[in-house]
Amino acid sequence: MAFYIVQPDPGTGASLPTTEGGVEAYVVNADSVTSARQIVKASGQFPSDASVDAATVTLLADPADLAGFRLRVYVYNPTTLATVTDVTVTGVTVADKDTLAALAVIALNAAGPMAAAAYADPTLTIAAAGDTLGDMACVVQLLPPATVNDPTVPIPAGVGAITDEGAAGAALTVVLNDIVTPAILGSGKISV
Q1: pTM passes above 0.85
Q2: Is the domain of 79 the same as that of 131?
């Protein structure tokens, strides 16, 4: 599902409605451009299906796009509080949780001391059993792009259960959740 703005075409012989203060566009959550048009048609607000068929439909936000978002994995010794590793990766272009996880695997294995980080949706294995780090503690955060006002505030919905502080021979893992990308899509005046 994604968010679209649907602006019916007034040039198809039907003027835009004057109901609800002169609605000129709809913001619709749909799985495709076609579905977005169908939802607006089904509303019955427009006197002509042709105006909706010819509508301009613009993708406002792809809910899976995590471009610019960061995944931080911090592993530390819960007894001494010494840092074992601390890596942060950033999604580029069009990124999703799988892209961020793949980048984290590369960064974790490169930073060490783990050598067998891996990802199988939805579980990121931060350290495998053979890495003997299962008794360490982990903090995993999905962070917004560094360009937002406060880029240090994590988005908890992106991170699920963390398995840590077990036996040294156990794996350190985290479940990465599918999320709708948090974003402000626009602003405007709403009248009811």
Answers
A1: no
A2: yes
